[in-house]
Write a structure and sequence with these properties.
It is found in: Membrane. With 446 residues, this protein is of the alpha/beta class. The protein is built from 15 helices and 11 strands.
Amino acid sequence: MTTVQTTAPPPPPALRPAVVARAGLYGVLGLNAGAVTVFFVQAGFGSNALILLGRLTGLYAALLMAFQLLLVARLPWLDRRIGMDRLTSWHRRAGFGLLWTLLGHAVFITFGYAELSAMDPVDQLVDLAGTVEGVLRAIVALGLILVVGTVSARLARRRLAYETWHFVHLYTYVAVVLAFTHQVAVGSTFTASAAATAYWYTLWGAALASVAVGRLVLPVRRNLRHRLRVSAVVPESDTVVSVHITGRDLDRLPARAGQFFLWRFLTRDRWWQANPFSLSAAPDGRTLRLTAKTAGDGTAALRHLKVGTRVFAEGPYGAFTTLHRTRPGTLLVAGGVGITPIRALLEELDGHAVLIHRVAGVEDAVLHDELRELARTRDIELHLVTGPATPDRLAPPELARLVPDVAERDVFVCGPPGMTAAVLRTLRALGVPRKQIHFERFSLAG
C-alpha cells in the first residue's frame, strides 16, 4: 500500500561515514606500524638473525595488542560508523594475527639465545624465565592468549555460552598488563631512546584509556544521568514481549533508530546478565522500547519484569541506521522478530520505502498492526511474505518481482542468520552495489 509522498531525503554525504572511519583506522594502524619499524631500526641490529626476528615480531605483537583494545573499546564515533559486529570481526582477525606474532616472538627469541649459548631450546627457555626479569610474566601472558585464542575458534565458540566465553576473554586484559610489564623490563627498543619510550607509553596509555572510556566511564555516566526504569511490560504474543523504559533527560541520549543496547535489568536473579536488544521504536526523547522473542531463561524473564525495575543499559551501539543511506529509495527486509530495528527505522526514513516482512505464518508477524499504521500514514509499501523457508520466497525472481528497482535502493536486512545470508546472496545476484546493502549481526567481544 502506498500513501502520499513525503519530502525528499537530503542528499548523501560525498564521503560515506563508514569509509571515513575505516580509512582512519587503517591510517592509524599503518602510521604506528611505520613508527614501530623506525624505532626498531634505530635500536640497532644484533649479530643473531633469530633474535632480530624475535624482537621485530614482539614489537608488532605489542602494536596488535594495543590495536585490539581500540577495536573493542566501543567508542561511539567508531561504533556508529562501522558497527560493533564488524569491529568485533576485525578484532577476531587481529587476535589470530596477535597469536601468531607472539608465538613467533617466543620461538625466535628462544632458539636465537639457544644458538648463542649452545643450550637445548627448552633449557634455554627455562633459564630465561628464571634469570631475566619479565620473561616469566611474558610466558604467562602467552599462555593466556593461547587459551583465549582456543575458545575463540569457531568450533569452540559455538559450543560455549556467551557468558562463559566472555569470562575467559576477560583474561586478555591480564595478558595485556603482563605483556606490557615484560616490554618495559627487557624491551631493548622500548629503552633505546627517550622518543621510543614516550611513544610506547603513549600508545598503551591511549589504548587503555579508550577501553576505560568506552566500556566504563560512558556507560556509568549515562546511567547515572538517565536513571532508567521499566515503565511498562506489554505482551505482543505468546512468545514476544515489549518492554518500555523511561528515565531522565532521554532527549540527550544519543540513540538512533536501528541501534541496540546491552540491557541489564537489576533484579535479584538477573542483574548480572546483559542481553543485546534493538530499539523497536525510534527514540522520542521520552521513552525507549525494546521487543524480544523468548529464546531462553533471560528473555523469558522479561515478561515478568515489574514496573519500576531499575535498568542499566550500555549503548547505544550499531551502525544499522539511516546515517549510511546512499539512495533516496529504500528496501527493508526483516525476518521474524528481526523486524524490531526495522520497525524503528521506518519512523526515520524519508522517501519511498518498501518493507518485506518474512515469517513462517501470520501469527509470527510481530508488530504487524503498527507496520500497517506506518504504511497508511507514510510512503511505505508493505509486503508480508509467509510460508516455510523452502522454497526460498525471496529468491532473485521473487524479490525482483516485488521490487523491480531494487538495484536503485538502499537495502536494510535484519533477521536470522540463514535468512540474512540468503537475502544477501539474492541482492548480489540482482546486482545491488555493496555500498547500498546494510546489515548487522549482534556480535560482541569482551
